[in-house]
Specification:
Shape: globular
Distance between the termini: 55 Å
Radius of gyration: 24 Å
CATH topology of the largest domain: Rossmann fold
CATH class of the largest domain: Alpha Beta
Number of strands: 11
Strand content: 5-15%
Structural class: alpha/beta
Largest sheet: 7 strands, mixed
Order of helices and strands: HEHHEHEHEHHEHHHEHEEHEEHEHHHHH
Oligomer: single chain
Helix content: 40-55%
Strand order of the largest sheet: 1-2-11-6-3-4-5
Number of domains: 3
Bound molecules: tryptophan, iron/sulfur cluster
CATH architecture of the largest domain: 3-Layer(aba) Sandwich
């Protein structure tokens, strides 16, 4: 038998391209510093990140940070959405501010959903489940169409977004309706909103997403950078920092040169003798001056990347195939039935199973336990061992998991009904 790896089902081998080509960093490197790592962190479901150190440092030093995500109210909320909700809620529990957008503008412009449907789906599918899973009223739940902040910011970001870049990411062409394009900018505005003055100004913000969502994150990081009044460039020699502000007020540049001791030029300030410490100081001075002169001083949003669950029948989990996913509003019995019909990593005969053991890494039932239903790592390890050791039989294992699923859905749905009574606490 090879080494036991209870997280084998979430191996990241297939994702190496993301690391090499797109500059996503490995989440493992940060794991040791995190105090109460979430199940998805411990089990390497979250495998990558962009500048998550910024969020982590704020978390560890008691400084402000936030987590945000958005949901398009065009279909049913399922276990995949639950993953994102849990990640936001975990950050809220670690002291972060939490934002949850209902992307009704996107659903209206792109999916043709009426505003009424958007409202109903937003509340009934996504918001109730988020609250039931533990989203607390300190955080912000909003509909895009009701947020003046977000709409204004989307317009502002539009100044720095051009058609070629957006079409490369979203596949826009001459036939694409303009509101669709606006909704792409609205998503970027969602991501940057937590850094507006109203919410305490610039701060590290993490957007937990699936691995395929990185282009949106890159776009938003770029827009944040371009929208800022100042850009910092560190010379290759590492001996000089240049603060560029082409359209910045002259007085702002002057103030930066005075406060950093840097040399003032027409459109930039150069600061000699660079060290990490000095860079952080310069960054914070530039941010202060930029805010004083009416700029945004956005920090690039951070992100974490999680692996997807496979569909219950193998293949992809897709909203258009009801048998491939379990919705958070599926009747508990139906959820349990879907587990009973799910694809396992079992062998063809019981005899083979006891001789060779099962293959949990290829088993969607095991995946349900790993992602959602078994919180205790030791217990999961036992399941894993028994499965590969051939002492666990798929029939019983499915029954056991189906029962866990039934219990989860039942409890979750009770909590959803209680959440209905609490909507007002969220201003909804
Ligand atoms: N576009 C996302 C979707 O299709 C929804 C969304 C809107 C979102 N705003 C966001 C996701 C901000 C992450 C961050 O589901
Ligand atoms: Fe999957 Fe359980 Fe069968 Fe193992 S015993 S393959 S975990 S269903």
């Amino acid at each position: 038998m090879t080494t036991l790896d209870p997280w084998g089902a979430v191996k990241i081998d297939n994702y190496s391209k993301l690391f090499d080509e797109f500059g996503i960093s490995k989440f493992d490197e940060l794991l040791g510093k995190i105090k109460n790592p979430h199940r998805y962190m411990r089990r390497h479901v979250i495998f990558g990140h962009r500048s998550y150190e910024s969020v982590l440092n704020a978390m560890l030093s008691g400084k402000p940070f936030a987590a945000m995500s958005g949901f398009m109210p065009s279909g049913r909320a399922h276990l995949g959405h639950k993953m994102v909700m849990e990640e936001i809620i975990w950050h809220q529990q670690q002291g972060g501010d939490a934002f949850l957008a209902i992307a009704d503008m996107e659903a209206h412009a792109v999916r043709g959903k009426s505003w009424k449907e958007c409202r109903e789906f937003g509340i009934n599918e996504y918001i109730l489940s988020a609250i039931a899973l533990g989203f607390e009223p300190g955080g912000h739940i909003y509909f895009q169409s009701k947020s003046g902040n977000v709409k204004d910011l989307a317009f502002e970001l539009g100044i720095k977004a051009n058609f070629s870049e957006l079409s490369a990411i979203y596949g826009f062409n001459g036939e694409t309706n303009i509101a669709h394009m606006v909704s792409a900018l609205t998503q970027s505005a969602d991501i940057l909103q937590p850094q507006l003055e109203e919410f305490g100004g610039p701060k590290p913000v993490v957007i937990p997403v699936g691995a395929d969502q990185d282009p949106h994150i890159r776009l938003t990081r770029g827009l944040a950078y371009k929208t800022n009044m100042f850009r910092l460039l560190v010379e290759e020699t590492g001996k000089e920092i240049s603060v560029r502000g082409k359209a910045a007020p002259k007085d702002a540049l002057k103030e930066i040169s005075k406060r950093t001791g840097g040399k003032l030029y027409e459109e930039h300030v150069d600061i000699l003798i660079y060290s990490r410490q000095i860079l952080a100081e310069v960054e914070s001075i530039v941010r202060e001056v930029e805010l004083k002169y009416g700029g945004y001083a956005f920090m690039p949003p951070a992100s974490t990347y999680h692996k997807f669950m496979t569909g219950l029948q193998g293949g992809k989990m897709s909203s258009s195939i009801p048998e491939s996913y379990i919705a958070l509003t599926d009747k508990p019995e139906d959820g349990a039935k879907k587990v009973m019909r799910a694809k396992t990593g079992g062998r063809v005969t019981l005899e083979e199973q006891s001789k060779l053991g099962g293959e949990p890494d290829k088993c969607s039932v095991y995946e349900l336990m790993l992602f959602h239903l078994v919180e205790d790592d030791k217990e999961l390890l036992e399941v894993y061992k028994d499965c590969v050791g051939g002492t666990r039989v798929c029939g019983n294992c499915k029954k056991y998991t189906a029962e866990l699923m039934r219990a989860f859905l039942k409890e979750h749905q009770e909590k959803r009904e209680m959440a209905r009574e609490r909507l007002r606490e969220f201003g909804l």
